[in-house]
Amino acid sequence: MFRSLIRTALFAAIAVSPAAFAAEKPTIVLVHGAFADSSSWNGVIGQLHKDGYTVVAAPNELRSVKTDAAEVANLVGSIKTPVVLVGHSYGGSVISEAAEGHDNVKALVYVSAFSPEAGETAAGLSGKFPGSTLGPTLAPPVPLSTGGNDLYIQQDKFPAQFAADVPAKDAALMAAGQRPITDIALNEAETTPAWTHVPSWHIYGDADKNIPPKAMAWMADRAKSKKTVVVKGASHVVMVSHPAEVAKLIEAAAKGE
């Protein structure tokens, strides 16, 4: 009798598990970009937590597209639920590559981000349309013993260039804590962009000084974006200055809307 009850319970669990999996909220994996860190997602994370989502802010070493994407891919592969991959800035290049080959990635969200085609680079896309003023704000490169250079934004120029719509005190903290990116990463070509077959959503500000808004509009259109949101007056860190709008779009992607 006892064994029969166990078998019945097991069969019931097996019978409902596909539906339960389908109904389960996806895990949101957030990937920061150059000159930022995972704390740039704090406002977005708070909203997603409030709405019942599990969130992981993935570390992004900002060394090269290949190695950064491999680390994010390892994380995605360890998650047993569906995943929504979200990338900011250079993080868009990373999630495009990291999602490839992972069937649990159901959506890609680009937040003021690059969505390169195979063979394209972040640096090349920045210069495809006029509007980026990043170059003159960079500090002298920091040579690396492993080759290449680390790039930083000059701290006194950081607020106006990177975070013009963020309170000055907060922008100064961001400037001091910025994570450098290598020149190698910015000039490394994408190889297998998953946005060509995984649905994508895009959001950016029309006052972005790092990536020209025209470039992001062009990339979103090329990717056949399910929904594109342009935040009026927002800087490159739209997730910091407008976390509610970014979280709303991520949740729309999670629901396939």
Mind explaining what this structure looks like?
By secondary structure, this protein is α/β, with parallel strands linked by helices. The chain has a single domain, classed as Rossmann fold (3-Layer(aba) Sandwich), CATH 3.40.50.1820. 40% of the residues lie in helices and 16% in strands. The chain contains 11 helices and 9 strands. It has helices spanning 2-23, 42-50, 65-78, 91-98, 122-126, 158-162, 168-177, 183-186, 213-222, 238-241, 243-255, and strands at residues 27-31, 55-58, 83-88, 105-111, 142-143, 149-151, 181-182, 200-205, 227-231. The strands form 2 sheets. The chain has a 6-stranded parallel sheet, with helices on both faces. The chain has a 3-stranded antiparallel sheet with strand order 5-6-7. β8 (200-205), α9 and β9 form a beta-alpha-beta unit. α2 packs across α11 and α3 crosses α4 (91-98). The longest helix is centred in the first third of the chain and has 22 residues, at 2-23. The chain is globular. It starts with a helix and ends with a helix.
